[in-house]
Design brief:
This is Copper amine oxidase-like N-terminal domain-containing protein. The protein is α+β, with helices and mostly antiparallel strands and 320 residues long. It folds into 2 domains: 187 residues, Ankyrin repeat-containing domain (Serine Threonine Protein Phosphatase 5, Tetratricopeptide repeat), CATH 1.25.40.20; 94 residues, Copper amine oxidase-like, N-terminal domain (Copper Amine Oxidase, Chain A, domain 1, 2-Layer Sandwich). It contains 11 helices and 13 strands. It has a 5-stranded antiparallel β-sheet, with no helix packed on it. Strands 2-1-13-12 form a 4-stranded mixed β-sheet. The protein has a 4-stranded antiparallel β-sheet with strand order 3-4-11-10. α7 runs parallel beside α9 and α9 runs antiparallel to α11.
């Protein structure tokens, strides 16, 4: 497969667009009101803290034409957005090159070039105390990354590589994930400030789940390490998520890998509880019915029954 260097890979040929819309809604239902759960309030932090791929990152608000602009240090762009810097002395400009885009800027210039196309900036690159700063939102989005804003709480930024990895997990591009997932924790980095985890989408595919486990993803992982920064605490194991969607083959594989069926999350639901609840939703909830149509035969009452029977038998065997 050839991946264009001029736009972020989004795995479009693998992703069913409507599933990508429906599943986050279901993930929200799973973690909130249907179980009487309370959406956890994000801990108050310094207004507009910036995080790039989960790491706290310094930035500044600099004054430009009587207004304050969010600016990010050039060195941060190269290190955390993984952009290579090239200085063109004769033009007094620099070029930032990444896996997906090429950006050219000049100090105090309100125009920038991205992949040969000229854009107008709200604020130009500025220099303060010897440090060059670039406009935050423009630089992140034009590099191929993604910026989420939670009012004055935080800026949550995904680097271009993290964004592409998320898209591949959601879109079930196993080979892309095989090549680019170097640390299993990247699959547990929230997609945005709502706290949704990429790994939860992997249960659509047995091959993707197998790959995550091969890459070292803990089979019973369900900790949101960024719970204080997100407004939902998405705590579910792969087994619980697969059971909730009646993914019988995935559930069987995870049990063979030692996944704990008795583990319960903050809503006090274990895998069997989720499977029984998912079956009820399939029977009563139009959203579940629409999802079952999109995924084909995978989400069916028959598969829910098989999943429930398997979990019961496994739990009885463990209990002796």
């Amino acid at each position: 497969m050839v991946i264009s260097l001029h736009r972020p890979y989004v795995g479009a040929q693998f992703m069913k667009v409507r599933i990508a819309v429906i599943l986050p809604m279901i993930l929200l239902l799973l973690s909130s009101g249907f179980f009487g759960g309370i959406i956890s309030a994000a801990r108050a932090t310094t207004p507009a803290d910036l995080y790039i791929d989960g790491q706290p990152t310094p930035y500044k608000q600099l004054k430009y034409k009587n207004r304050m602009e969010n600016m990010i240090p050039l060195r941060t762009v190269t290190s955390q957005l993984k952009m290579k810097l090239t200085w063109v002395k004769k033009n007094s400009e620099w070029t930032l090159s990444g896996d997906f885009h090429r950006i050219t800027m000049k100090l105090n210039d309100l125009t920038a070039t991205v992949d040969g196309k000229v854009y107008k900036l709200n604020a130009p690159p500025l220099i303060e105390k010897g440090t060059i700063y670039l406009p935050l939102r423009f630089t992140v989005t034009m590099s191929g990354g993604e910026l989420h804003w939670d009012r004055d709480h935080i800026y949550w930024v995904l680097s271009p590589l993290q964004k592409a990895l998320n898209s591949a997990i959601i879109g079930n591009d196993v080979e892309y994930v095989r090549q680019h997932l170097t640390n299993w924790r990247s699959a547990a980095l929230p997609l945005g400030v709502d706290g949704t985890m990429p790994y939860l989408f992997s249960v659509q595919s047995l091959d993707m789940v197998k790959l995550l486990i091969e890459k070292g993803f803990p089979v019973d992982y369900m900790k949101n390490e960024y719970a204080s920064l997100t407004f939902n605490n998405w705590q579910r194991t792969l087994l619980q998520e697969a059971a909730s969607l009646g993914q019988f083959e995935v559930v069987a594989y995870l049990l063979n890998q030692g996944a704990g069926p008795f583990l319960s999350n903050s809503h006090h639901y274990n895998a069997l509880d989720y499977a029984q609840w998912g079956k009820q939703q399939l029977q009563e909830n139009a959203l579940w019915i629409e999802l079952s149509i999109e995924l084909g035969k995978d989400i069916t009452e028959e598969n829910y029954n098989k999943t429930i029977d398997l979990l019961k038998a496994h739990m009885e065997q463990i209990s002796g």
